[in-house]
Amino acid sequence: MAPNVPLLLEAHFAVPMAGAVLNAINTRLDAATIAYILDHSEAKVLIADSEYHGVIRKALALLDRPLRVVESHDPEGPGGESLGEIDYETLLAAGDPGFEALPPLDEWDSIAVNYTSGTTGNPRACSITIAAPI
Asked: Are 16 and 104 a contacting pair, CB within 8 Å?
């Protein structure tokens, strides 16, 4: 959960290449909706900009399980309170330079999941694959 900053672009490529599924969360959502999405998607890690610390803290409090939070700080943004146990740049620096990307094994493997706005109920998930159109 971050504004349109380089981190978000990096995540769109890095998360699927790490063998995970990206779920970019709309920054305008309320805490209950964010908590629903995190729970429904079975999120394991949340990368969140400190700008959204208020709504993120509320969303995390609504979850029935702990969630690892990696915090980021947009140097051009307003900033906010610390959110996580590790900073995004520290996480990157601790990475293995020899790591080989894990591209999807099948063109139908999910690389991202997006959620609808949920205007008529809970948001609905929409899986994104790399399948070419027919």
From this structure: yes
